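Follow-up to my earlier ticket, as requested here are the two runs.
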Amino acid sequence: MILADTGRRFTPLSPLGRGEKEGAMLEVEVKYANADFADLERRLSAWGAREGEPRDDADHYFNAPDRDFAVTDEALRLRRIGAKNFVTYKGPKRDATTKTRTEVEVPLADGDDAASDFARLLTLLSYRPVAVVRKRRRLFHLERGGFPVEVTLDDVEGVGRYAELEIQAPEERLDAARQVVLDAARELGLTANERRSYLELLLAARAKGTP
């Protein structure tokens, strides 16, 4: 079995535009380079943020047979967190300030076999492996402006240290969510806004020959 057994009944998909899904939540996210983890930890602690268990992520990215995701600003990845597996689609970014985009994530069955089978399924459909982004991630959870906010401190292999702030919000609350993450980032002292994905940063570093 590749898909996780969630107990949900299958419902046929309705015809939707690329990157769109009825009732889909938007990922409202900002990312900052040159993150001072010690300073951020102090500020988050003062806010009463709850720290989760640190984890190691391995994100396996694929490109499509019918279009180039680097051109369309989309992404398809298989994320592995220990034995847990997830497949995620991300649509094009919606604005020039944040990394707001449609995100659809589906849990797969746990374990190496499920991950390998899903990767093989994609390659049989002519999807091409691009790269694997590996990072050590620490997560902090807090409430700001009526939204649950997730702050992550990421040490990304071959890329560097970054901080991300994210809210999951419906379309009708997009503007409010965007303002909350931008205000929170400013209050945390974050200034080096980075709109490129970790995949884009990794590929750029490899192109420059950065170890």
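Run two:
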Amino acid sequence: LLDQQAMLSAALELLEQGIGIFDSDLAMVACNGQFRRLRGYPAELCLPGVALRDLLRYNATRGDFGPGEIDSEIERRMAEISTLQRREVEHRLADGRWGLVAQAQGAPLLESCAFAVVDVETTGMRASADDRITEIAVVLVHGERRELLFESLVNPGRPIPAMISSITGITEPMVRAAPRFDEVADRVLEVLEGRIFVAHNARFDWSFVSAEVRRARALRLEAPKLCTVRLARRLVPAAESCALDALSTRFALENPARHRAAGDALVTAELLQRLLGLAREVGARTLPELEGLQGPHHRAGRRRR
């Protein structure tokens, strides 16, 4: 599914991570010393041409699974490969970006849409420069359902400015033992996949999530995006401010964990449900119609919080 240059690039990246590469006949093409060290294989089992079945037999002798489970283990791994190939077909776009939502035909009805409401806390404002995510949360909204799917502190690998800590309450000792983003990237992609990306000032959260995924997995993300700030400008014209605090007060929404990812994502999810109701009142029935209700981008790059 990849051209030869992309395949070579992917192979080299896998080798750097210590992952063995196998061909379609399940024979090893290449691996490195890190692959052997991480998995405890003897040197003779890490040579080109060694069969995956032989590696799994060695795993069985270590007690990883029973000798009679080798065939089922191979089937499981082949099923995983099949899933990855399916995702490649569904989500790899023509220009190389990775679509979180498979390209669909027509205009999906709002009641059929699942929304991933995202909030990130960060070390600063510059996603494309030195700033990184310190906390992320994703809330599912689907009809009346509202559920926190994922939340985690994230070790940004760099200092958190005191001013930022004073706002979020997230300090360097809190994130010291937290996973790096590359350790949670697969889970983040899993909860975002197939859902409309939503955030309060979506441009900010999207810029950080897409930048982190690009660094962690070399994927350029693409997805439908909704911004609750822009929707509120059009659907709540009487609001003096579309900041999250102001809209929460207007709709009597409670947020016991302000400026923390889960607290802000949950209240934004509840706000989204209110806005979806208002959108239906003005005749929006499909996702393109809802997207068309978004007001203009705020010219400033700072977050409307």
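The only thing I checked on run two: The beta strands are 21-22, 28-30, 98-99, 115-122, 133-142, 145-153, 196-199, 221-222, 225-227. Let me know what else you need.
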